[in-house]
Amino acid sequence: MPGGNQPSNLEFGCRHAPSRGVADSSDKVKVIQARLLTTQSRQKSHTDRRVRDLVFLRVGDVTYELALPPGLSSIHQVFHVSMLKKYVSDGSHVIRWDSVMLDENLSYEEESIAILDRQIRKLRPKEIASLKVQWRGRPVDI
């Protein structure tokens, strides 16, 4: 091999000069890393602005404690990670705390206005009835 331990392009039947493939790839990786860092920073600042009320404290490997305001102190605050799921934002999910009247069991009753749809689903030996209900103070889901 001419020139030491490295083979030349002619030995492998290559007719063109070696490309800058490795250098180009490393440049592209640096650009991608910079863009990822920018995106992560943007997402973090957005999250920091939006999430202020809830504080999660890690209690164990898979358990968390939720720091709640004093008005909700009788709710069980420790939960397992398996209870979490991805949240899809929806404006109808926002509840004004002052508009909800909780009883001593920290529950409330919703008032139905109308039955919008009825269905009966047949599952082998059973028939299961389901109703779509319009609740007072909630938008109609289509």
End-to-end distance: 74 Å
Radius of gyration over C-alpha positions, nearest whole angstrom: 30 Å
Strand order of the largest sheet: 1-2-3
Order of helices and strands: HEEEEE
Q: Structural class, judged by helices and strands?
A: alpha+beta
- Tell me the number of helical segments per DSSP (H or I, 4 or more residues long): 1
Helix content: 10-25%
Sheet having the most strands: 3 strands, antiparallel
Query: What sort of overall outline do the alpha carbons produce when their principal axes are compared?
Result: extended
Strand proportion, as a percent range, falls in 15-25%
Oligomer: single chain
Mean pLDDT: 76
Total number of strands = 5
> Low-confidence parts lasting 5 or more residues at pLDDT below 50?
none
